[in-house]
Design goal:
The protein has about 375 residues and is an alpha/beta fold. It has helices spanning about 35-50, 125, 130-145, 145-170, 180-215, 245-260, 260-265, 295-315, 330-340, 360, and strands at about 1-10, 15-20, 25-30, 70-75, 80-85, 95, 100, 115, 225-230, 275-280, 285, 320-325, 345-350, 365-370, 370-375. A six-stranded antiparallel beta sheet has the order 2-1-4-5-6-7, with helices on one face. Strands 8-12-13-3-14-15 form a six-stranded mixed beta sheet, with helices on both faces. It is globular and about 65 Å long.
C-alpha cells in the first residue's frame, strides 16, 4: 500500500497543493514553518480522522476559509482508491471513496493505514495516561475500524452519565437518578469491549515492542534492555479478561456499584476505560519518571515500530511517516533507524535540512518553501 497522490484545498497553510508520490522513501525538506509537516499531517488525518498535532479540527482549515478538503489516492497492488475528507469546523465532516459519499465519516478510517512518529511521541512515555490511552485507541481503530464507532458511542454515554452525576452532586434526594442504572449498563457494555480489546492489543504488541526496543537501544546496559507494557484497569479484572468483554463487563458493573457514593459526591464517572492506564516499564522500573531522555526516545520509537510491525503482520504495509525526528538523533541512531525501516513500502520523511536525513531515506525529494512544494527529483 502506498499514497500515489495528495491534493489539498485550504488545508492548514495551503490554498491548493497537488503532489504525485510513489513507493519507497520520500523526503520533504524545508525550514520550520514552511508547511512540510502539514503535508504528512493531511495524509495521516485521512487514515485516522485525527491529527497528531491538535485535538480539534478548526486549526486544520486555512485561516479565512470555511472548509478544508484532503484527497488521497491510495494504491494497493493493481487497485486504486480515491479517499476524500471534507473538514468543516462546527459541522459534521464528510468522506467519500471513489466519489461515493460514505454513510458515516468514520467509515473511511482504516482504508489507508499510517504509522506516524514525531517528537511529540515523547508524551507516550513521559505524558499523562490519556496519551497512552489515545495511542492504544488509535491503533485499535486502524486494526479494527469498527472499534472507532464503539469508542465514539462510549464517549457519548460517558458524557451523558457525567452530566447526570454532576447534576446530582450534593443533591442526592432532589434529583431523579432512575436512569442512572441504564447509563451504568451502557457504560459497562461499551467499556468492556474497549478494555478487552486494549488488553488483547497490548498482548499482541508486546513481542514486537520487546524486539523493536532491543534494536533501537542495542547499546543499553543489559539490565535496561527489557521493556513491558501492561494494562492497569480502574477495577480489578479476572485473569480471563483478555479478549473477553463479558467478564470485563461484570467487573465494571461491580466496580461502578462499589464507587457509587464517591461518584455521586464528586459528580464524575470513576470507573471505565477512560480511567485506565498502559504502564510502560524498562527493566524493573516504570518508564515514566525513571527513564532517561534517551531511553524515553528509544521506547517511544519502539512503540511506533512495534505498531508498524503488528499492522504489517496482519495485512499490507502501512505508510510510515517520520516527522522531523532525525534532528533529535545522533548520526549513529539515524543510520540505525534508516536500516530498521528501509524495507517499508513507503516512508515519508520531513526534515529542516537534507543532511539530517540518512541517504537511504532521502529517495525522491521535495523542497517546501512558503507553502509551495517543488520536486527536487531523486
Amino acid at each position: 500500500m502506498h499514497v500515489a497522490r495528495l491534493v489539498l484545498h485550504d488545508f492548514r497553510s495551503y490554498t491548493e497543493a497537488e503532489i504525485d508520490l510513489e513507493p519507497g522513501p520520500i523526503a520533504f525538506i524545508g525550514a520550520n514553518g514552511q508547511g512540510k509537516t502539514n503535508l504528512v499531517e493531511a495524509i495521516d488525518y485521512v487514515s485516522r480522522l485525527d491529527s497528531h498535532r491538535v485535538a480539534g479540527d478548526a486549526p486544520l482549515v486555512r485561516v479565512g476559509a470555511d472548509q478544508a478538503v484532503v484527497r488521497v489516492e491510495v494504491r494497493r497492488a493493481d487497485r486504486t482508491a480515491l479517499l476524500e475528507v471534507e473538514i468543516t469546523p462546527g459541522r459534521a465532516n464528510r468522506a467519500r471513496v471513489n466519489g461515493s459519499a460514505l454513510p458515516r465519516t468514520r467509515d473511511v478510517v482504516g482504508i489507508l493505514r499510517t504509522v506516524m512518529f514525531s517528537p511529540d511521541d515523547l508524551a507516550l512515555v513521559k505524558g499523562d495516561p490519556s496519551d497512552r490511552r489515545h495511542f492504544l485507541d488509535a491503533l485499535l481503530t486502524l486494526r479494527t475500524p469498527r472499534l472507532g464507532g464503539v469508542k465514539a458511542d462510549y464517549d457519548r454515554v460517558l458524557k451523558q452519565r457525567n452530566a447526570l452525576l454532576k447534576s446530582a452532586r450534593g443533591r442526592h434526594g432532589s434529583v431523579d437518578l432512575s436512569t442512572l442504572d441504564i447509563w451504568d449498563d451502557k457504560l459497562a457494555t461499551l467499556g468492556a469491549e474497549i478494555v478487552a480489546q486494549r488488553m488483547n492489543l497490548l498482548m499482541d504488541l508486546g513481542v514486537h515492542l520487546a524486539s523493536a526496543y532491543l534494536e533501537v537501544a542495542a547499546e543499553a546496559p543489559t539490565d535496561r534492555r527489557d521493556v513491558r507494557a501492561t494494562y492497569k484497569a480502574s477495577v480489578e479484572l479476572p485473569d480471563d479478561a483478555v479478549g473477553d468483554p463479558a467478564s470485563v463487563r461484570t467487573a465494571l458493573l461491580t466496580g461502578i456499584e462499589q464507587r457509587r457514593r464517591d461518584e455521586l459526591e464528586r459528580g464524575i464517572s470513576l470507573v471505565g476505560p477512560h480511567r485506565d492506564e498502559a504502564v510502560l516499564e524498562i527493566g524493573d522500573l516504570p518508564a515514566k519518571g525513571y527513564a532517561s531522555h534517551g531511553e524515553s526516545w528509544s521506547l517511544a520509537l519502539a512503540l511506533r515500530l512495534a505498531s508498524f510491525a503488528l499492522l504489517r503482520e496482519e495485512g499490507d504495509d502501512p505508510v510510515l511517516i517520520l516527522d522531523d525526528v532525525f534532528a533529535e538523533l545522533d548520526q549513529g541512531r539515524r543510520e540505525q533507524l534508516a536500516a530498521l525501516v528501509g524495507d517499508a513500502e513507503q516512508v515519508l520523511v520531513t526534515a529542516a535540512v537534507a543532511d539530517d536525513v540518512p541517504k537511504a531515506l532521502l529517495g525522491r525529494r521535495f523542497r517546501v518553501e512558503g507553502g509551495r512544494v517543488h520536486s527536487d527529483g531523486a
